[in-house]
Design brief:
- The chain has 636 residues and is an alpha+beta fold.
- It has 2 domains: 329 residues, Chondroitin AC/alginate lyase (Glycosyltransferase, Alpha/alpha barrel), CATH 1.50.10; 256 residues, Beta-galactosidase, Chain A, domain 5 (Distorted Sandwich).
- Strands 7, 10, 11, 12, 13, 14, 15, 16, 17 and 18 form a 10-stranded antiparallel sheet that branches.
- β5 and β6 form a beta hairpin.
- α15 runs parallel beside α17.
- The longest helix is centred in the middle third of the chain and has 20 residues.
- The two termini are 51 Å apart.
């Protein structure tokens, strides 16, 4: 089933319609007007007796002045912040592309370079749509300028890319104003990516290959187009991409680009309000935070290299966003895979932090602090830590990257990822997309088969929740207390409260669910691939031991004891660490049933013989671990 067919099937489904209504109801008027504007342009522009493509081509000045020094210097700085493995991967991809094979999103396409590039072949347009977007965004150019210091190191790749640019410029199918152009090669987001990659590639090749003149001409007309199609209606990270693209284009063209520079600055200043009080991007996806932060770091460095004053709003985002990332950085240094985050699509965390240092952005944070505005809370320190996602969903008018992960946890022991989120397989409205956003894909509790927030399609989100969270320390015990209620005349009603206590080398998680009807309540824990889960019965109660599959099973990384559950079973679940990459991993499920249930589990760095929780009604008062009693602070 194609992406289009999948969307049509979703939108005609009776269960989807209320979710669609709620999503549209929360959209801002500017978004709705933008959808109408794009639809109208696509209908009208191709039928006008005007050659729109030639109109933009005539805007390119003769004797175009090109000044690559600023972008070249910034690109060199960025390249030097990458790790050796990342640069090696770029060089491999560049070499493959030189032979006509392009790989994005774990899918390789032979683009038919010998007979000219077929930019809109069935293979290019085959789902996922994100593949074509990255291809038309010229992301392949980054493999050359980030993998190699100089173009002389990869002459075959530079020659191939030069041919591709000539083909793009001369092909009828890539002309501005063709049928569907705003949903194909001239999607403003793709245009923004194309400008950034062209700008860096132009600056990198210098005058050594003869491609600079053509690339600069393509870049100029793309910038002129983008200036007329800024995505104010879409907003979010798209607007940030638009702003940086115009800023970089403006830095390359001296007098002709002055207005683009000013527009780019204005856009980035306006978009600075997308960052929350703790410095996190408001879509609450660690991956998109890194992407957005790296754009602001580039903007700050570009303006400084040109001797311009940097607006305080840009400096504030760069500084607070860097501090946020330092605080969110897990023990293994890799992104938490929450809210549409995957590996390989943004700068690695440490590379982004090195980039911030290299462009002169200093933050006062040393890491591992809780981030209240974004809703991320750390319990523990050093190499043994638990991260709780206790925040709101993303902004109501941009719910696309939000998941049903209310109070979900991820966990690291001895610096290794043990309990992990699911990641994202794709954005098309498929079963895998639905699963990755569902409550079942996260390390939290589910009442019956209910989704706390209805989800559908690629990005639709139903009636939102309003969780309340308290995180503090009492009597030497760190604790998290979060709760939400699912209410509504047409919705199944229930409430969920999750309390987490941390002391020494253990974490106690205790869930309370109260509902109008009796149903099974399931707490799921998804285990990192490569970690084995073994059932142990040599103590007074069953426990599960988590150990590296290739390590010493007599010395587990962690031990887990279910508490109060009617059953505890081990099965498997799917894991999507990268786009279009699926793995199998262990999954531990604990279940209790009723209208009002309380149960939980204790996770410890070492095996425990016996564990018991003491509670008075809903109030948890203490825990006994191996006959040692520990009173717990009141969280009421």
């Amino acid at each position: 089933m194609s992406d289009v067919d999948s969307r049509l099937a979703q939108l005609t489904d009776t269960e989807t319609m209320p979710v669609l209504y709620n999503t549209v109801r929360n959209m801002e008027s500017e978004q709705l007007l933008g959808i109408a504007d794009r639809t109208l342009r696509q209908l009208v522009v191709p039928s006008l007796p005007v050659d729109t493509d030639q109109w933009y081509d005539r805007k390119v000045p003769s004797g175009l002045a090109f000044a690559p020094e600023t972008v070249r210097g910034n690109t060199t700085t960025l390249r030097r912040c990458l790790g050796g493995d990342d640069r090696r991967r770029y060089r491999e991809r560049a070499s493959e592309a030189g032979r006509g094979s392009v790989t994005f999103l774990n899918r390789t396409v032979d683009i038919g370079e010998s007979d000219g590039v077929d930019w809109f072949s069935s293979a290019v347009l085959e789902p996922p749509e994100l593949w074509a977007l990255q291809f038309h965004g010229f992301e392949f150019l980054s493999w050359a300028y980030l993998g190699h210091d100089e173009p002389q190191a990869c002459p075959a790749t530079v020659e191939a890319f030069s041919d591709w640019l000539e083909d793009w410029y001369g092909a009828d199918e890539t002309r501005i104003g063709t049928d569907g152009y705003l949903r194909r090669g001239w999607t403003p987001y793709a245009v923004s990516l194309r400008i950034v990659h062209l700008a860096r590639f132009c600056a990198w090749v210098r005058n050594d290959t003869g491609v600079e003149t053509l690339a600069a001409r393509i870049l100029y007309r793309n910038a002129a187009f983008l200036a007329n199609h800024v995505e104010y209606d879409v907003g979010g990270n798209h607007l940030i991409e638009n702003g940086l693209a115009l800023l970089l284009a403006g830095s390359l063209f001296e007098e002709e680009g002055t207005q683009w520079t000013e527009t780019g600055i204005e856009i980035l200043v306006d978009a600075s309000d997308q960052f929350l009080a703790d410095g996190g991007h408001f879509e609450r996806s660690p991956m998109y935070h890194v992407i957005a932060l790296s754009r602001y770091l580039t903007a700050v460095d570009t303006l400084r290299r040109e001797g311009r004053d940097v607006p305080s709003e840009l400096l504030d985002v760069a500084t607070s966003g860097t501090e946020f990332l330092r605080q969110l950085r897990p023990p293994d240094g890799r992104l938490p895979l929450v809210n549409d985050a995957v590996f390989g699509e943004a700068l690695p965390v440490d590379a982004c932090l090195r980039y911030a240092d290299a462009v002169g952005i200093q933050s006062g944070s040393v890491g591992a602090a809780s981030l209240d505005a974004s809703g991320y809370y750390w319990l523990g320190e050093g190499e043994d830590r638990m991260l709780v996602d206790g925040g709101q969903s993303g902004p109501a008018h941009l719910p696309g990257h939000s998941h049903n992960d209310q109070f979900a946890i991820t966990f690291w022991a001895d610096g290794q990822r043990l309990l992990t989120d699911t990641g994202t397989y794709e954005y098309a409205p498929t079963d895998k997309r639905q699963y990755s956003r569902s409550v079942a894909a996260h390390n939290t509790v589910q009442y019956g088969d209910i989704e706390p927030i209805p989800i559908s399609g690629s990005y639709l989100l139903g009636r939102r929740l309003d969780p309340t969270v308290r995180e503090a320390e009492g009597d030497g015990v760190q604790f998290f207390d979060g709760r939400y209620s699912r209410r509504g005349r047409l919705q199944t009603q229930y409430s969920h409260r999750r309390r987490i206590y941390h002391d020494e080398d253990w974490w106690l998680v205790w869930d309370t669910v109260d509902a109008s009807e009796s149903a099974p309540v399931t707490s799921r824990l998804h285990v990192q691939p490569g970690i084995d889960v073994a059932t142990e019965t040599d103590s007074t109660q069953p426990r599960f031991e988590l150990a590296a599959a290739d390590g010493n099973t007599d010395d587990p990384l962690a031990s887990l004891v279910p508490l109060g559950a009617d059953s505890a079973t081990v099965a498997t679940s799917q894991y999507f660490p990268e786009f279009r990459r699926a793995e199998t991993r262990p999954k531990l499920s604990m279940t209790a049933e009723g209208r009002s249930v309380q149960f939980g589990w204790l996770l410890s760095r070492r095996p425990r013989r016996s564990v018991a929780v003491e509670h008075d009604g809903e109030t948890v008062t203490g825990v006994s671990i191996d006959d040692r009693y520990r009173s717990l602070p009141a969280t009421e």
